[in-house]
C-alpha cells in the first residue's frame, strides 16, 4: 500500500487547510471562493501564512526547521519558506503515480532502461517518480538550492545511487547543447514558470518562450518516445491550451488533459490548482 501523509482538510474564503504529516498549515488559495465546510478545524493549525501587507507567517517559529512526509509513496523533505512554499506541490502527486506506472510498463515492453528528462524540476517529485520506475533521469532546475533539496529527497527514498543527472542551468541553453550533442530522451516532463530566471539571470516568460521550449523538447525526444507531460500553474493556460500546444508539436498520439487537484477525504471539496496535458505514444498509456 502506498503511504501518504498529505490531505486537504478544508478550504474556503480564499484559504486552504492542509495536513503534511503532523503539521497543519493554512495558506492562501484564491480558487476557494466558497465557504469553509469544517470551520471547527481551522483553530487547529500549526501555522498560517498570508500576503496581507507583505509575506507573513504566524506560528512559524513553532514549526520544525524541516520535517519529512511520505506523499504517495515518496518521502519528501518539507520546510517553510519566506514565500509560503514548503517544498512540494501536492496537486502533482496523482501525476507521480501515473509517471511511475507508465514508465514501468513501457520499460517492460521495450526491454530496456528508459531515459527521462525533467525540466523546471523543483524539489524532484516527478524525478523520483521516474527513478523508482527504474529509469535514467536528467533533473534540471535553474536553482542550485532547489536542486540540492531534490538530491536530499532522493537520499530519503534510497535513490541516491540511482542514475540521476543533477543539472543546474537555464533550460534553453541546456536543450540547445543536448540537441547539438544528439542526446535524446524517451520521456520529457516540464513545468514552466509564469516568470523565472535562469542560472545566470536569463529571463523566462511563459507567453513568449513556451513554443520554443516545446520545439526544443520535441527535438530531444528519442525515435521511440513514451510521453511528454506538460504542467502549468499560469492563469489562462487551461487544460485545452496545454493539450493544443502538445498536439501541435507532437502530432497523433493518446492525448489527455485535466486539472491538478488538491484532495482530501471524499466529503472534502477538491481544489483545482494548476493544469496538465500529456501526449503518449499509441499503445503505451498506463
SSE layout:
Layout: E1 6-12, E2 15-20, E3 23-28, E4 47-50, E5 56-58, E6 67-71, E7 74-78, H1 93-110, E8 115-119, H2 125-131, E9 136-141, H3 144-156, E10 164-168, H4 171-181, E11 187-190, E12 195-197, E13 203-205, H5 206-219, E14 227-232, H6 239-250, E15 254-262, E16 271-280
Parallel strand pairs: 3-4, 8-9, 8-11, 9-10, 11-14
Antiparallel strand pairs: 1-2, 2-3, 4-5, 6-7, 12-13, 14-16, 15-16
Helix pairs in contact: 1-2, 4-5, 5-6
Explain the overall architecture.
This protein has six helices and 16 strands. By secondary structure, the chain is of the alpha/beta class. The mean pLDDT is 94.
Strand order of the largest sheet: 10-9-8-11-14-16-15
- Helix and strand composition category: alpha/beta
Termini gap:
19 Å
Most strands sheet: 7 strands, mixed
Low-pLDDT residue spans: none
Number of discrete helical segments: 6
What Rg is obtained from the alpha carbons, in whole angstroms? 19 Å
Which term fits the overall shape? globular
Element order: H for helix, E for strand: EEEEEEEHEHEHEHEEEHEHEE
Strand % is 25-35%
Number of strands: 16
Short description, anyone?
This protein has six helices and 16 strands. The chain is of the alpha/beta class.
List keywords for this structure.
globular; 7-stranded mixed beta sheet; 5-stranded mixed beta sheet; 286 residues; single chain; 26% helix; alpha/beta; 16 strands; 6 helices
Amino acid at each position: 500500500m502506498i503511504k501518504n501523509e498529505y490531505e486537504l482538510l478544508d478550504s474556503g474564503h480564499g484559504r486552504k487547510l492542509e495536513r503534511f504529516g503532523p503539521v497543519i498549515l493554512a495558506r492562501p488559495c484564491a480558487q476557494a471562493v466558497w465557504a469553509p465546510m469544517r470551520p471547527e478545524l481551522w483553530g487547529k493549525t500549526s501555522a498560517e501564512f498570508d500576503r496581507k501587507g507583505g509575506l507573513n507567517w504566524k506560528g512559524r517559529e513553532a514549526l520544525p526547521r524541516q520535517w519529512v512526509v511520505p506523499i504517495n509513496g515518496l518521502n519528501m523533505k518539507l520546510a517553510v519558506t519566506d514565500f509560503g512554499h514548503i517544498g512540494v506541490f501536492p496537486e502533482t502527486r496523482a501525476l507521480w503515480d501515473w509517471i511511475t506506472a507508465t514508465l514501468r510498463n513501457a520499460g517492460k515492453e521495450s526491454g530496456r532502461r528508459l531515459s527521462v528528462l525533467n525540466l523546471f524540476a523543483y524539489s524532484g517529485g516527478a524525478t523520483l517518480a521516474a527513478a523508482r520506475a527504474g529509469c535514467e533521469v536528467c533533473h534540471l532546475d535553474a536553482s542550485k538550492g532547489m536542486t540540492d533539496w531534490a538530491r536530499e529527497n532522493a537520499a530519503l527514498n534510497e535513490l541516491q545511487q540511482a542514475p540521476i543527472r543533477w543539472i543546474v542551468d537555464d533550460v534553453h541553453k541546456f536543450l540547445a547543447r543536448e540537441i547539438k550533442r544528439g542526446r535524446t530522451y524517451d520521456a520529457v516532463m516540464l513545468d514552466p514558470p509564469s516568470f523565472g530566471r535562469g542560472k545566470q539571470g536569463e529571463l523566462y516568460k511563459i507567453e513568449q518562450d513556451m513554443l520554443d521550449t516545446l520545439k526544443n523538447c520535441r527535438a530531444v525526444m528519442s525515435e521511440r518516445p513514451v510521453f511528454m507531460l506538460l504542467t502549468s500553474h499560469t492563469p489562462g493556460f487551461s487544460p485545452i491550451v496545454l493539450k493544443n500546444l502538445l498536439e501541435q508539436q507532437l502530432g497523433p498520439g493518446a492525448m489527455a488533459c485535466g486539472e491538478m487537484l488538491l484532495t482530501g477525504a471524499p466529503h472534502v471539496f477538491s481544489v483545482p490548482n494548476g493544469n496538465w496535458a500529456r501526449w503518449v505514444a499509441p499503445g503505451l498509456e498506463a
